[in-house]
Amino acid sequence: MKKVLSFVLMAVIYMQVHATLDQQNVFDSFNAKSRVLKSIDAVTDKLLPTEAECLAVEDIIGEIPSILKQFYLNCGNHVLHGYEMGFVYKGADSSLVKLHEIAKEDDWSIPLTYFPFCRDQDSMYCLDKKNGKVVIFDRFEKQIDEDPKYQWDSFLSWLNSTLG
Question: 151 in helix, strand or coil?
Fold first, then answer.
């Protein structure tokens, strides 16, 4: 069974490997180190989703961007710095499916070019399907927050920022 990781542990592991390793090696190192450590803070309560669970979710919401799918398959479902990423499990019961249902509601109306993966009250973190950047979509403004401090060049840079 996968060990439960602490937020602090995730930040340390990620920062150690981010500068020199590609995404798969980051995920591999993250998991290898996590298996030998005991729980400090509850970060995840789900096992790694299976490929079949990812496919079941994709049948409902469409293709999960590659970087996110690899994160789920290699690192599992996580609560990062208090923000719950949409979890991948049990098809229609997946919180990622529910997040996408909310994103389509009139009071959100997130454009289809964005893939929401994490909610923070009245904002959603979204991956831009065209360029791989992570942005924040504001529910009330009904647009992407244009402030550069709320935009990241990639999922990995968002992850690093979130863990830091």
Answer: strand
What residue numbers bound the domain in which 76 lies?
44-163
What are the tens digits of pLDDT across the range 80-111? 556 667 778 766 677 888 889 888 887 888 99
Helix, strand or coil, per DSSP, at residue 27: helix
Number of domains comprising the chain: 1
What's the pLDDT tens digit per position in 42-60? 444 456 788 888 999 999 9
What DSSP string runs through 79-138? EETTEEBPP--SGGG-HHHHHHHHHHSTTT---TTEEEEEEETTEEEEEETTT--EEEEE
3-state DSSP call for residue 17?
A: helix
Q: Which residues of 101-134 are buried (b: 16+ CB within 10 A; e: fewer)?
A: ebbeeeebebeeebbbbbbeeebbbbbbeeebbb
- Whether residue 31 is contained in a domain is answered as no
This prediction has a pTM of: 0.72
